[in-house]
Design brief:
CATH class of the largest domain: Alpha Beta
Strand order of the largest sheet: 13-12-11-7-10-9-8-14
Shape: globular
CATH architecture of the largest domain: 2-Layer Sandwich
Mean pLDDT: 89
Distance between the termini: 38 Å
Bound molecules: nicotinamide-adenine-dinucleotide
Low-confidence stretches: 1-21, 28-32, 212-224
Number of strands: 14
Number of domains: 2
Largest sheet: 8 strands, mixed
Strand content: 15-25%
Structural class: alpha/beta
CATH superfamily of the largest domain: Dihydrodipicolinate Reductase, domain 2
Order of helices and strands: HEHEHEHEHEHEHEHHEHEEEEEHHHHEH
Length: 450
């Protein structure tokens, strides 16, 4: 852990002064004139981290190194866990954050006025109640994926953020993957021409959250890893953001186009139960829990402008980690992880092979993300998910400090969150189409950035 906290308090203040520029996620001009929501500038951003488990624990230490950010409070169910992070911060010369302990302690945290930003890293089942309370209090709210999980909660987030003039952002770290940022940048500069189709895969075996000593230890729901509990009663695409976020930004969804409807198809639900059977034997009570969640989900989305997006998710079949995006336009295509690009140079020429060697290097140099170029060292030092975690937090903090719109708005938050419920509805209804609400209420058509 300590490597993440290497930066001293003095170093932290120096970094604040040095971080003069930070490029936007895409190349289009940003700022108040874009019509997007901008909050009053904050010189020093007081952040409270809610949930200090695997993800939140890493966030505490990452945020300590983000210019302009001060971690002022930690909120947890488990006091020992929060205290451990508090002591580690203290040992590295940071001011001790205040602790708020208990399942409802987030209310006292939000009501206390100690923070400007609430950074939510709890399990899925508590994202909505914490986020909606923070927004009610007018606090900028950052929520781990998959955000909130119902259309009603997504609408409530939009209404509260608009009414109380605060940001609500999905902590979509995959949008800061280096290849994904190259894709977004190039697409926004029209390199691929009119876009027609995008794809995203999140094929990540996460059976470690299944029946092992970390959770899911017994037959009772409350003993289970609480995000996994959601898979007992729900099916559909429960984790769409890693696959969808980068494509949504590359296509300027909510900034000139909008997701109109989806159809979703799910395979049978076999994997989690089979894992419990293999681990504990067929007669163990845990092996008798019936999971609703489809093992493999494919969701297709059509936009108002006639583009399509295809998403695939699978988490409980043994396989190597496969996450990535592809985007297709009238001038060519790009695929991430590894970066592969094919562009047409003349009609029916050039796009039938991927760029290689110097040509690909030139493409990277021209369309690679300036944010990565500027902040690579700091991103790699933290190295959370290869550096993308740091860049995500660095970037919203930069925007808050400089009075810029965030890369991802509350409308993105709501639209991406809504896929959880809408894909489930479609799967349960023989893949019938479901409309995706226009959370911008028409603003997508006129505002380049909302
Ligand atoms: N973006 C990514 O790459 C990524 C990676 C892993 C997990 N996640 C997301 O991060 C979130 C957390 O996942 P995790 O793996 O860290 O889980 P975890 O179980 O390790 O941590 C969750 C923590 O939240 C705490 N908590 C739960 N309810 C709370 C409440 N009401 N108030 C305060 N604390 C509470 C728990 O005690 C626990 O310490 C999930 O939403 C998950 O989907 C995102």
């Amino acid at each position: 852990m300590s490597a993440k906290l290497e930066i001293s308090r003095r170093g932290f203040l120096e970094k604040v002064a040095l971080a003069a520029t930070a490029a936007a996620i895409g190349s289009r001009a940003q700022g108040a004139e874009s019509g997007a929501f901008v909050a009053p500038k904050l010189d020093r951003i007081r952040v409270a981290v809610v949930g200090t488990g695997g993800r939140g624990g890493a966030a505490v230490h990452r945020l300590c190194n983000v210019p302009g950010v001060e971690v002022v409070a930690l909120c947890e169910l488990d006091e020992a866990k929060a205290k451990r992070h508090q002591q580690q911060m203290k040992a590295h010369g940071f001011r001790e954050p205040r602790l708020f302990i208990g399942p409802e302690a987030y209310k006292a945290l939000c009501d206390s006025g100690v923070c400007d930003v609430v950074h939510i890293n709890t399990n899925w089942t508590s994202h909505a109640k914490i986020a909606l309370h923070a927004l009610t209090c007018g606090i900028h709210t950052m929520v781990e994926v998959p955000g909130v999980r119902s259309v009603d909660e997504a609408w409530e987030a939009v209404e509260l953020a608009e009414k109380n003039r605060c940001h609500c952002m999905m902590l979509s770290n995959c949008c800061y993957d280096e290849d994904a940022m190259t894709m977004i940048n190039a697409a926004r500069q029209n390199v691929f021409g009119e876009l027609v189709h995008g794809e995203g895969d999140y094929l990540h075996e996460t059976r470690f959250v299944g029946p092992n000593s970390q959770g899911f230890r017994g037959p009772k729901r409350e003993q289970m890893f609480s995000s996994l509990v959601a898979l007992i009663d729900h099916t559909g695409m429960c984790y769409p953001v890693h696959a969808l976020g980068p494509i949504s930004l590359a296509m300027n969804i909510n900034r000139g186009d909008r997701m109109e409807y989806l159809v979703s198809m799910g395979s049978k639900a076999y994997g989690w139960q089979e894992l419990a059977r293999r681990t504990y034997g067929p007669d163990a009570p845990v092996a008798k829990i019936k999971f609703e969640a489809n093992d493999f989900n494919t969701t297709s989305i059509r936009t108002v402008k006639g583009r399509t997006i295809q998403l695939r998710q699978c988490n409980n079949v043994p396989m190597p980690y496969t996450r990535g995006n592809r985007i297709y336009g009238f001038n060519g295509m790009l695929s991430t992880r590894p970066l592969q690009v094919a562009l047409e140079k003349r009609f029916n020429g050039g796009a039938n092979r991927f760029m290689a060697g110097a040509e690909l290097a030139d493409f990277r140099a021209k369309y690679g993300s300036p944010l990565w170029r500027e902040q690579r060292e700091a991103a790699k030092k933290d190295n959370g998910h290869g550096g993308q975690d740091y860049l995500m937090d660095y970037r919203w903090a930069y925007c808050l400090r400089n009075g810029l719109p965030l890369d991802m708005s509350v409308y993105d938050f709501a639209a991406w969150s809504s896929i959880f419920e809408l894909s489930e509805r479609s799967v349960r209804n023989r893949s019938q189409a479901c409309d995706i609400p226009d959370f911008t209420r028409g603003k997508w058509a006129s505002a380049p950035f909302v």
